[in-house]
Amino acid sequence: MKKLALDLNDVTKTFQKDDGYITAVDKVSLQVEEGEMVTFLGPSGCGKTTTLRMVAGFELPTSGSITIRGSDMTNTPVNKRKIGFVFQNYALFPHMSVYNNVAYGLKARGEKDKDIRDKVRDALVMVGLVDTENRYPSQLSGGEQQRVALARVIVMEPNLLLMDEPLSNLDAKLRIHMRTEIRRLQKKLGITCLYVTHDQSEALSMADRIVVMNKGKVEQVGTAFEIYSNPQSLFVADFIGQANIIHLKVTSLAEDVIGVQTHNGGVFSARCIIPDHIDSSVESYEVGKDAALVIRPESLTVIPYKGGEETFNAVVSSSVFVGSHVEYELTLPNNEMIKAFIPYTNNMQIFKEEEQVSFMIDPVNALFLPRKKNKP
Amino acid sequence: MSTTRVEHTRRSMAKRDPVLFGTLVAIWIIFAIFIFLPIIKLLSTTFVVDGSISFTNLIKIMGKSYNIRALYNSLILATAVAVTGTVLGYIFALAVTRTSLPPFFKGLLAAVTILPLISPPFTSSISLTLALGPNGMLLRALGITDFSIYGFIGTWISETLTYFPVAFMVITAVLNTMSANLDDAALSLGSSRWRMFRTITIPLSLPGIGNSILLLFGASLADFATPLILGGHTFPVLPTEAYLMITGMFDLKGGASLSFLLLIPALLVFILQRVLIGKKSYVSVTGKNGAKSAFGKLPHLLTAIISAVCAITVVFILYLYAIILWGSLVKVWGVNNTVTLQHFKYVFAHGKKAITDTLLIAVLSTVIGSILGVVIGYIAQRKNFFGKRFFEFGSMLNYALPGTVVGIAYIIAFNQKPILLTGTLAILVAAYVFRYYATGIRSVIASLAQIDPALEEASLSLGANSLRTFTHVTIPLIIPAVLAGMRYLFIHSMTAISATIFLVSVRWTLLTTRILESMTELQFSQASAFSIVLIIIVFVVDAIMLALMKWSTRKFTQQESISYEKIGA
Fold first, then answer.
1. Predicted ipTM > 0.95
2. Cβ of B559 and A138 within 8 Å?
3. Considering only CB atoms, which chain B residues are within 8 Å of A108?
4. How many domains does chain B have?
5. What is the pLDDT of residues B203-229, one digit of tens each?
C-alpha cells in the first residue's frame, strides 16, 4: 500500500481569546498523496494558515492527529519534522549572505562542508540564482529574495514543502511568473506541497487539488474543474469565480432534481447537489419553501424581451462593454440582482440600460445548492 | 476544570520545551536568593520582633524627631530636585529640538549632558565643594565669606546638575515624536507663538514631563553620595541616616526600619511610572505622517532665555569638571597651587588595588548581567508561561528600590549561614548585576519586539534546535541592544555606590569608596585624582562601547531589506 505524504485526521485548534475560546480550525481531515500539490484557499481568518502552521509544527493541534509519511507527528517539534516552510515575508536571515542562508539547515544538520557547498550551488542554480552567493538579502530584489527562500528550503529535500502566501509581496507580473516557476520546480522535484493563498487564480492554476476553507472548516476538496463546475456549497459557489444566486419557490422534489416556479409563473428544474455526507447543518428542501439556484454569469443567455412563462424576465440596470464580452446587471421582478457575461461576437445585439429583456438558463449549468441553517 | 488545564500546560512545558523549563527554574532560584530573600529578610528584620509581627521597631524609629526630619528632608529634597531638574531638562530639550541654534551648540549641549550621566554620582558634589565650599575658588573670586554649601542648598544644586540629563533625555524623546505640522497648524490658525507654545507644545509634552518628575524624584530620594558629602549634620536624609545607623551604631534593625520608610515612596514612584508609561501617549499618533517641516517657531524671547540658560549651565558644568582636574594637579587645594603629579602617583601606588578591584567587579557584573539580561529579556518577550507578570516584576525589583535599601537588605540577608557572602566579590557583583541589568532586559525586549518571529520559525523549520536558533539567529540580531545594556551596566558598576557602600570590605574595595574616604578626610586633591582616573576609565570604555554599538547597528541595518520593515535597529 502506498504511504500518504500527509494525513490530517480531525485536526482542531482552539485559541483562548479574552474570556472565551475561538475555534480557528474545526475538525479538518485531509489525505495528500506523494508528489501532490494542494492549495488552501479561503477568506482571511478561515483557518488555512493555522492549518499549515500545525502541519509545520509551529502550532500544536488542540485535538486530532497529523501523520507525515506514515509516522505520527502530531506533537513532534518543528525541527524534527523535516518540513520546508516558505514564509510570506521570506524570513531570510538579514545578517547572513545568500550562501549562508541556503546552507543554514545543512549546517544545522551537520553535513560535510564539501557536500554543503555542492548542494547550495545546485539549489541556487535550480531557482535560477547564480553569482549571488556573497550578497545579502537586502541587496536582492523581492523576486530574488523569494528564490533564495525557495532554495533554502528545497536544498533540505524536505518531506513536505509548506508555503504561506509566498507570492503576496510581489508585484502582479512577477507573481504570475513565479507561479509557473514554483509549479515547475515542484513537479521536477516530485515534492509534496501545501500552498496557502487567498488569491483564487493562484489556487486554481497551480494545484492538483484545492481545499476551500471557511470559518475553520473544509467546504470542499477537489480539482479546479470540480470546484468551479460543481461547487458543493453556496459559499464555494460564491467564493470561486462569480455566481448568481436566485431564490425561488420549490414546486416539486424528485431524486436529485428540483422543480421551482419562476417569477413569471413558469416551471424550471435542475440538478440538486446532495452533500457527500449527511450534515445536520444543511437544511433539506421542502415543497413550498425557498431554494437557491446557482448560475455562473457566463452561463446565461440574454435575449430580447419575450414575456410568457418559458423564460425569465428582467430589466437591464447596467450594461458595460469590456472588449471580450458584455457585462450586464439585470434586475429581477423581486429586485434581486444577477450578472450576465455575454461573449462578444460581430453583429451581436447589445441591450441598453432600462431595456426589458428575457434570459434563459441551461439546466446543465445550473445547480440547486443545499443551504446552511441560520442563513438567509 | 481550570486546575487540570494548568497542570496540563505545566507538564507539557517540562516535556515539550525542557530548555525553557530548566532555564525558568534556574532563574527563579536566582531571583529567590538575590532578589526576594534580601527584601523578605529586610521586612522581617523590621517587622518581626521575638517571632511575632510587630511595629515596635518602626514606632521606635518614628519616635525620634531626627528620623522624622530625615524623612521630611528626603521628600522635600526629592520634590525640589524633581522640579528644578525637569525644568532645566525641558529647557535643554527645547534648545535641541525646537530652536535654530547652530548645530555645534546643540552638539555641545548633548555632549555636556552626557558628562554627569557617566561620572560617579558625587563628581558634582566634590567640585561644588571645591568651588563653593570652605576656601572655595568661586567664593573667593566673588569675595563672599558667609556662605555655606553644606545643607539643603548644596545638595539640591548638586543633585539637580547630576540628574537633569535624565529629564533632558526623556523630554527630548517626547518632543521628537511631535509633528512640526501641529505648530504650523496652530500658527496658521492665527495663534501667536506664545499661545502655540502654551496650548500645543506644553500639553503634548506632559507625558514626558510627568515621567521626568517621577524619575528624578526617585533618583533624588535614593541618592546617597551627594547628601553624604554636602548634606552635613544640618540636613539629614533617609539614605545617609540609614548608613550612619548601620556603620556607625551597628543597628541593623534601625537601619532596616529606616530603609523601609525609604522603600514606600520609592515603590510608589516606580508603580506610578509604570502606569504612566503603560498608557500610550497620544503624541505618537500624530508623529509619523505628514512631511516634516522644521521647528523653530518658539517665541523670540523664550528662545533667548533658553539659549542663555543653556549657555550658563554648560559653562558651569565644564567649570566644575575643570575644577576637579585642577584640584587633582595642585599640591594643597586652596593653600599651595604648585602643579604636581604627586596625587596621581599616590592613586596608582596606594589606590592600585581599588582600581583593579573596581575593574574586575565591573567587568564581571557586565558580563554576568548581560547574559542574564538577554536570557530574561528573551523569555519575557518570546515565551508564555505561568507567572510571567510576577517574573517580570521580580526581575526589576532591585532596580526599582533605592540602592541603600538593597545594600542594607543584602548585608542582612548574606551575613550569616547558609548564604554567607559578606566580604566577598560575589556579593558586590550580585548587587550590581541585579540593580543595573534592567536596562539590558528592556532594550533586549524592545529589540526582540522589532524582529519578526518568522525568522526564528524559519530556523526551526530548517532543522536547527532552539539553542542553535538562539545563538545563530536571535543573538546576532539583538547585539546592538545587548551592547546598550552592557554599556549601562559597566558605567554603573564602575560608579554606583549607594548599595555597595555597605558591602565593601578589606578584601574588596572600590574606587568610589576611596573617593568618599578621601573626601571625609578632607583630602580634596586625592579625591579629585581618584575621580579623574575613574572618569577617564569610564570615558574610554564608554567610547569603545558606543563605537561598537554604532558599528553593529550599521552592520545589521545595512543588511536590512525592504521586506523586513519589522526588524530595524
1. no
2. yes
3. 459, 462-465, 468
4. 2
5. 888 888 988 999 899 999 988 888 988
Say whether A151 sits in a helix, a strand or coil: helix
Domain boundary among B318, B349, B380: B318
Contacts of B567 in chain A (CB under 8 A): 94
Considering only the beta carbons, identify the residue of B466, B473, B563 that sits closest to A93. B473
- CATH code that applies to domain A243-372: 2.40.50.140
Task: Looking at the structure, tell me whether residues B70 and B45 fall in a common domain.
Answer: no
Residue A105's closest CA among A157, A166, A35? A157
Same domain, B47 and B68: no
Q: For chain A, what are the domain ranges?
A: 6-234, 243-372
Query: Which tops the pLDDT comparison, B63 or B152?
Result: B152
Query: How does the average pLDDT of chain B come out, rounded?
Result: 84
Residues of the domain holding B375: 2-54+363-504
* Domain A6-234 indexed as CATH 3.40.50.300: yes
Q: Is residue A296 classed as helix, strand or coil in its secondary structure?
A: coil
- Interface residue A291 vs chain B (CB under 8 A): no
Looking at B318, B353, B386, the residue that finishes a domain is B318
Choose among B52, B60, B58: nearest CA to B257.
B58
And the C-alpha cell for A376? 438567509
Which of B1, B450, B461 should we substitute to test contact with A (largest number of A Cβ atoms within 10 Å)? Answer: B461
How would you write A311-351 as a 3-class SS string? CEEEEEEEEEECCCEEEEEEECCCCCEEEEEEECCCCCCCC
For B239, phi then psi, to 5°, come to: -60, -40
Cis check: omega of the bond before B418, within 30 degrees of 0: yes
Q: Which three cell numbers stand for residue A275?
A: 452533500
